[in-house]
Design a protein that fits this description.
about 15% strand; single chain; about 240 residues; globular; alpha/beta
Length: about 240
């Protein structure tokens, strides 16, 4: 059975925002992705709304019920948006001021854990599945389970940026062990960050993986091959 593919369309919105135009429309992009192999559409609503905005989220959740996987931080404002538009699932991610992209998994300080417990409970009351974006280590996976998450998304940033075969193998082992532990704890396992057409297979081959969430490499591939072909190629790999 092939893995599920979540296509992140943030950078469709990035292109739109470069000219403050009405197009390309993320809703149109989502339709193309779903028609050509994507199982879910992933969008990251940031505090500054620099690509996906709240209007996009509202339209996407209305147009594609059961297919939208929202990434957002644990601020009250972003929690409010998630509860209002009710995506299929929410992946809670860290967000640092000035970051270009997410820099790693959640840091589970006492304050963060208390905040996550509150947010997870409210999301569950609305029937929304909750994922936590975590580093691939045992402590983070165990904490996610204790907090009541349904899913863990293992951060593959370090793996995608490894420069030697030794580093790559060590990081793959971390991902595999974290996946095994997560499954033992009853969690669904996703992976994402920096995955592309060249490095995704080794992660996809890890037993217990359920879904790959991939955006930048698919959108950049689409510039040359077209969005339907870019999505289809990735889905075939999985």
């Amino acid at each position: 059975m092939s893995l599920k593919l979540g296509v992140n369309i943030d950078h469709i919105a990035t292109l739109r925002q470069a000219r403050r135009a009405a197009w390309p429309d993320p809703v149109d992009a989502a339709a193309v992705c779903l028609e050509t192999g994507a199982d879910f559409i992933v969008v990251h609503l940031r505090k500054d709304e620099r690509h996906i905005n709240e209007k996009d989220l509202a339209l996407l959740c209305k147009t594609f019920p059961g297919k939208i996987h929202l990434e957002c931080s644990y601020t009250p404002e972003l929690e409010k948006a998630a509860l209002k538009y009710k995506p299929y699932s929410v992946c809670i991610v860290p967000e640092e001021p000035g970051e270009v992209t997410t820099t790693g998994g959640l840091k589970f300080t006492p304050q963060v854990k208390a905040r996550l417990l509150e947010m997870i409970e409210r999301l569950h009351k609305k029937g929304i599945l909750v994922s936590l974006f975590v580093s691939p280590d045992a402590a983070s996976v165990r904490t996610a389970a204790k907090l009541g998450a349904d899913i863990v998304e293992l951060c593959t940033r370090d793996y995608s940026e490894a420069t030697t075969a030794k580093q790559t193998q060590k990081l793959l082992q971390d991902l595999a062990l974290s996946t095994l532990l997560a499954k033992e704890l009853g969690l669904e396992v996703h992976a994402g960050h920096g995955l592309d057409y060249h490095n995704v297979l080794a992660v996809a081959d890890i037993g217990g993986m359920s879904c790959m969430n991939i955006g930048f490499s698919i959108v950049t591939r689409s510039v040359f091959a077209g969005l339907p072909a870019a999505v289809s190629e990735m889905k075939e790999l999985l």
